[in-house]
User: What shape does this take?
Amino acid sequence: MGEDQEVLRLDTRNRESVPEYFGEQMAHTITEHEVETFRAQRKTVPIKAKKPEARRPRSTSTVKHELAVLKEVFNKGIAWGLVDRNPAARVKPLPESKGRTRFLSVEEAEKLVQAASAHLRPIIIMALETGMRRGEILRLKWEDLDMKNNMIYIADPKNNDPRHVPMSSRVKALLASLPRRLRADYVFVGVKKWQTVGKDGIPFTDVDTSFRNACAKEGIEDFTFHGLRHTAASHLVMSGVPLRTVGEILGHKTATMTERYSHLTPEHKRNAIETLSSCYNSATIAQEAGR
Assistant: This one.
């Protein structure tokens, strides 16, 4: 095995897409066109899953991640002096859909909570009532909970900017009802009575399978766990909470990230426009408006 070929294997452990596609091809022979073909072909390969019904189409974001892995491998090869160019450097990710953000109605959310298994139900409620990301919830520790002031401290969010999220009364009651396992720092951990779910006292690292099962049980399609975060944000906005406040709760780094929910405020915008009428209440303007 040559050194160039080894480059493709160094940082791809547990990341099968690159070696799976390029096989035994020498790294220095891979062209930009082949990388573009790789990008297009991966979109047609369904994700791997033990159960056939769980083998859904590969998402654009997954292909984007796999392309990033390939770029990372070649950059490492260049740094180590094993190759002299990166054929993936100029290959752009597939364009992602700009469609409307999918979120659940109140009725759908309530049904999903009821359909969820015992270990998943409190995790879903946390997502719906705090807008926290899945990783933030699963990494939550008991020391992060301020039950006196009803606040949750998120120490290591996606954008590396720690924040506090208020607890609703239901979230506080939920957290207070959870058993605290001895020598377990994390809030959401496996429990013996859940025979096939997690390990006793060990924090969950993934709840995708149980989440998909709950969605399937209620006929909720085209929805991922991250959609619970969108659901929380959407219902906050529709309840009249200012976009800036929503962004602070969700930990958005820029206002642009929260603007995607602005289309949910038409009634509030109409009410704002109606206030202008009180500024122009003269008989002349009223007469002109009536024509």
Notes: Strands lie at 145-146, 151-154, 163-166. The domain at 106-269 is CATH 1.10.443.10 (hpI Integrase; Chain A).
